[in-house]
Amino acid sequence: MFLTQVLLKKKTKSKFILVLIQSLVSGHNRTWVRERLGDKLELTLFDPYIQQESVYKELKKIKSLKV
Question: Which of 16, 20, 22, 47 is a Cys-bridge partner for 65, taking CB atoms 3.0 to 4.6 Å apart?
Answer without folding.
Answer: 16
